[in-house]
Design goal:
The protein is mainly beta and 714 residues long. The protein folds into five domains: 183 residues, Immunoglobulin-like (Sandwich); 149 residues; 82 residues, Immunoglobulin-like (Sandwich); 84 residues, Immunoglobulin-like (Sandwich), CATH 2.60.40; 95 residues, Immunoglobulins (Immunoglobulin-like, Sandwich). The chain is 11% helix and 33% strand. It has seven helices and 45 strands. The chain is elongated and about 160 Å long. InterPro entries: FN3_sf, Ig-like_fold.
C-alpha cells in the first residue's frame, strides 16, 4: 500500500453552495450519501430516500431570499475525512485513490478541515452575549443607579463592538452554522468563500496565514446570499429551526417569552405584498433608530403529538386566526415595541403542549406594511406542577353584595383551561380565566360558593386531580337597604323632602314608593320630592326596592316601611315698617319687609286702605281692601302708596308660585301714611326741593287746585 501525503496543491476547490433552514440537514453522512448516490435501492431504502428528499426540499432556501437563521453548506471535497461523493459513488478517506502518489492522499492524512470567510454587515457574537447578560441584570436589578449603568454599557457596546463587517473561522465539516443567534442581519447581502485544508480544525486554528496557504487548497468561487427582511426567531431556541422538531422539556421560565433578533435597518426592503418599504426614522434618547413600529405574531398549538397545528385559542376570533399585534407601550415611554412577546400573565403557554410560532415586522403602527413571516419555530415545556388558582374577583365575602352579572375571575399561571363549580349551577368548563353568571342563573340576595380546577389543555381534559382552588363565596345584590339608613323619619319634616337610603353594593337602580303615588325608578340611592307631590302636615309612608338592572328590573323585596309627617310653614314676623308705624309720603316708594320664613319659597302680601285721612283731598282715594296684593320670591318688596290715611297689611308664606300651599296668614300689621316735606324739615317749602314741576312731590299744596303728590304723567 503506497504511503500518500495530503497537500494543499492536491485539494480541489469546494463547489455547490447550499442554504438550509434546518441545521440537522447532513447530506454527507454515510447513510444519506448511500441513499442519494445508490441506484436500485430496496423498498425500505426507497422510503428513506423519499423522506430525505422531502426534508431537503423543505429545508432548502433560495439564496436570494434566505430566512434566518441559515446553515451554509457545500459539497465535501475529494478526500474529506467525513466522506464524499464521486462519480455517483460514496467514497471515504480510507479508499486511497487509484494511482496514489506521494503528492496525494493517504489513509492517515485526509482533508480534515475547512476555512470559511464571510463578508457583509454582521453582529459580533461576543457583543451580543454581553448585551444579553446585561439585559438579564437589568431585569433583576432593583437599584435604579445600577440599571442606568448597565444601560449605558449596552449603549457603549452597540456603538463600539456590536457591528462587524467580516467573519472568518474554520470548521471540521463542509458546513457552517452561525455560532450565535442574530449574527447575520435581516435584509443584507453576504459574500463568502471556503477552502479545504489538510490539518484538523484545532491545528489549523493555530496556524498563521502563510502556513495555512501551504496546507489548504484553492478557494471556492465567491458565493453570495441575500437575507430576507423577515425577523429571525431567537428564543425559545428550536434545535432544528424551521424543521418539524422542537425544543422539549423547557422550564416555566423558558416559555415565558418569545424573543427575536433586533431590527435596525435604514435600507429599503421588500414587503410581503411585493412593494418596497423603509422603516421610519425614530429618535430615542438622542439616538436614531430605524425599527419596526409593530410586530404581528401567530401562535399555534397541537392537541397531541403528530397532530396538526391549530390556532391558539387566545387568538382565535370567529373561525379566523388573526395575528397578535404588538405595539409600543407609550405609557412606558416606548417608541417602538420590544423584540419579544412576554406572556406576562402566563395565559398562553403551559406544560406538555407542543407550540409553534412565527412573526412579521411592520413599518407602521397599524401593521399594514409588513415583511414575510419568519421561520416557524417550535417548543414544549416539561411536566411541572400547576399551582392552585387564586381569586381575583369578586372578593371572598358572603356579606357585601356584588352586582349582576357576576364575573368570577381568578389567577392561575400556566393553566389554559378550567373546570369550575358554582353552587346551584351545573359544573362547567372554560378556556378563559373568568366566567360570567347572571339572573336567572343567579338569584338575588343569595350566597354562592365556587371553586375552580386548572388544566393544561384547552379542552379541560388534562387536569391535576387534587389541585383545586380554595372554596370562595359571594352574595348577589338585591337585599333591601338597611332600615337605619332610610331617611327621613319622624315629624315636622320640611318640604322639599330629601329621601336617602343605603346604596346597596351592586345595585344598578332602585324602585321608590311613597303612599298615594305610583312607584318610580331612580338611579341613585336618593330622591327629592316637593309640592305638589307632598303637602304640609301630612303623614306619609315609603319603601325602596334594590334592583340589579338599570331600568328597574330584576329587583329584590321591598324594604320595611318608613314613616314621617311633613311640617307646617310658620307665619311671617318682624315687619318693616313696624306695626302702628307712621310712614311719610317722602318715603314712597318704600321697602316693606319681614323675617324670612324657613323653607318658604314665595310670599303673598296684601295691603288694605282702611280709612282716608282728613288731609287727603283726592276724590279717588277711597278706602279699599286689597289695594295691593302681590306674590314675591323674597321677604321684601318696594311699595308705592299715594293716598293719605290708615292701612293694614298681612303676609303669608308659600311653597309654590301660586301660593296654593301656604302657612297660616300672618298677623295684621298697621301703619299710617302722612304727608311730609321730607326728612330735612316739614312744610311746603321743603317739597320744592323736588323741582319746579307740579307733580310727583311728597307734599300737596292746599292753595292750588291740583294735587302735587300725584305721579307725573308723560
Amino acid at each position: 500500500m503506497p504511503k500518500c501525503k495530503c497537500k494543499g496543491e492536491c485539494i480541489d476547490a469546494p463547489e455547490n453552495d447550499k442554504y438550509f433552514n434546518d441545521p440537522t440537514i447532513d447530506l454527507d453522512s454515510p447513510e444519506n450519501c448511500f441513499l442519494l448516490h445508490t441506484t436500485n435501492l430496496s423498498c425500505y431504502d426507497q422510503d428513506l430516500l423519499t423522506a430525505l428528499l422531502e426534508k431537503i426540499g423543505r429545508a432548502t432556501m433560495d439564496k436570494n431570499n434566505v430566512f434566518l437563521p441559515v446553515k451554509l453548506d457545500w459539497d465535501p471535497v475529494k478526500g474529506d475525512v467525513n466522506g464524499w461523493a464521486e462519480d455517483n459513488e460514496c467514497k471515504t478517506c480510507q479508499d486511497c485513490p487509484e494511482g496514489c502518489t506521494d503528492e496525494c492522499y493517504d489513509k492517515p492524512e485526509c482533508v480534515k478541515s475547512y476555512e470559511i470567510v464571510i463578508d457583509g454587515e454582521m453582529r459580533s457574537c461576543e457583543a451580543l452575549r454581553e448585551i444579553d447578560e446585561l439585559k438579564e441584570k437589568i431585569e433583576k436589578e432593583t437599584d435604579p443607579q445600577n440599571k442606568v449603568g448597565y444601560e449605558n454599557e449596552i449603549k457603549r457596546i452597540r456603538k463600539d463592538e456590536l457591528e462587524i463587517n467580516g467573519y472568518a473561522t474554520t470548521t471540521d465539516k463542509s458546513e457552517f452554522i452561525p455560532p450565535c443567534s442574530c449574527m447575520f442581519e435581516s435584509n443584507r447581502t453576504y459574500k463568502w468563500k471556503v477552502r479545504g485544508c489538510c490539518p484538523t480544525k484545532e491545528v489549523l486554528d493555530a496556524m498563521n496565514e502563510a502556513d495555512r496557504n501551504a496546507v489548504c487548497g484553492p478557494w471556492s468561487d465567491t458565493w453570495q446570499f441575500i437575507t430576507s427582511p423577515a425577523p429571525e426567531p431567537k428564543l425559545p431556541y428550536d434545535p432544528d429551526w424551521a424543521g418539524p422538531g422542537r425544543s422539549i422539556n423547557l422550564t416555566k421560565e423558558q416559555i415565558e417569552k418569545l424573543k427575536w433578533c433586533e431590527i435596525d435597518d435604514q435600507l429599503e426592503w421588500q414587503g410581503a405584498d411585493g412593494k418596497k418599504y423603509k422603516y421610519y426614522e425614530t429618535t430615542l434618547e438622542d439616538e436614531m433608530y430605524y425599527s419596526p413600529l409593530t410586530y404581528k405574531v401567530l401562535i399555534y398549538y397541537k392537541k397531541e403529538e403528530g397532530g396538526e397545528d391549530l390556532c391558539h385559542p387566545n387568538l382565535k376570533r370567529e373561525g379566523e386566526c388573526p395575528d397578535l399585534i404588538l405595539t409600543p407601550d407609550e405609557a412606558a415611554g416606548e417608541r417602538f415595541p420590544p423584540f419579544q412577546f412576554w406572556d406576562k400573565n402566563h395565559t398562553f403557554f403551559t406544560k406538555l403542549t407542543p407550540y409553534a410560532w412565527k412573526l412579521v415586522a411592520c413599518k407602521d403602527i397599524s401593521a399594514n406594511y409588513c415583511t414575510d413571516y419568519s421561520q416557524l419555530w417550535r417548543f414544549s415545556a416539561e411536566n411541572f406542577t400547576l399551582d392552585k388558582p387564586q381569586v381575583v374577583s369578586p372578593p371572598n365575602d358572603e356579606v357585601t353584595p356584588v352586582g349582576l352579572p357576576v364575573v368570577i375571575s381568578w389567577s392561575s399561571p400556566y393553566a389554559v383551561s378550567f373546570i369550575y363549580e358554582v353552587s346551584g349551577i351545573p359544573q362547567g368548563k372554560t378556556s378563559t380565566h373568568n366566567v360570567s353568571f347572571d339572573y336567572p342563573q343567579l338569584q338575588l340576595d343569595t350566597v354562592y360558593s365556587w371553586k375552580v380546577q386548572p388544566c393544561w389543555d384547552f379542552e379541560s381534559k388534562n387536569c391535576p386531580e387534587n389541585v383545586w382552588s380554595d372554596v370562595y363565596k359571594f352574595r348577589t345584590t338585591g337585599r333591601p337597604p338597611n332600615p337605619g339608613t332610610m331617611k327621613p323619619t319622624g315629624t315636622d319634616i320640611p318640604i322639599p323632602v330629601n329621601f336617602e337610603w343605603e346604596s346597596v353594593p351592586g345595585a344598578k337602580s332602585f324602585i321608590f314608593k311613597i303612599s298615594g303615588k305610583e312607584p318610580q325608578i331612580v338611579k341613585e340611592s336618593k330622591i327629592i320630592l316637593d309640592y305638589p307631590d307632598l303637602h304640609q302636615e301630612t303623614d306619609y309612608s315609603w319603601q325602596v326596592k334594590t334592583c340589579a338592572r338599570d331600568n328597574g328590573n330584576v329587583c329584590g323585596a321591598w324594604s320595611s316601611t318608613t314613616t314621617f309627617k311633613t311640617f307646617k310653614l310658620s307665619t311671617p314676623s318682624n315687619p318693616s315698617p313696624p306695626d302702628n308705624q307712621k310712614v311719610f309720603t317722602y318715603e314712597m316708594p318704600g321697602n316693606f319687609s319681614w323675617e324670612p320664613v324657613p323653607y318658604a319659597r314665595y310670599y303673598k302680601y296684601t295691603i288694605n286702605y282702611v280709612s282716608k285721612s282728613a288731609d287727603e283731598a283726592a276724590e279717588e282715594c277711597q278706602p279699599q281692601e286689597g289695594i295691593v296684593e302681590k306674590i314675591v320670591t323674597q321677604p321684601s318688596d318696594f311699595v308705592s302708596l299715594n293716598c293719605l290715611g290708615e292701612y293694614e297689611w298681612q303676609v303669608t308664606a308659600c311653597l309654590d308660585a301660586g301660593c296654593q300651599e301656604t302657612g297660616d296668614l300672618g298677623p295684621v300689621w298697621r301703619f299710617e301714611l302722612l304727608q311730609s316735606g321730607g326728612p330735612g324739615g316739614g312744610g311746603f317749602v321743603g317739597s320744592l326741593t323736588g323741582g319746579l314741576v307740579t307733580c310727583g312731590r311728597t307734599f300737596d299744596d292746599p292753595n292750588t287746585l291740583w294735587n302735587e303728590r300725584e305721579p307725573c304723567q308723560i
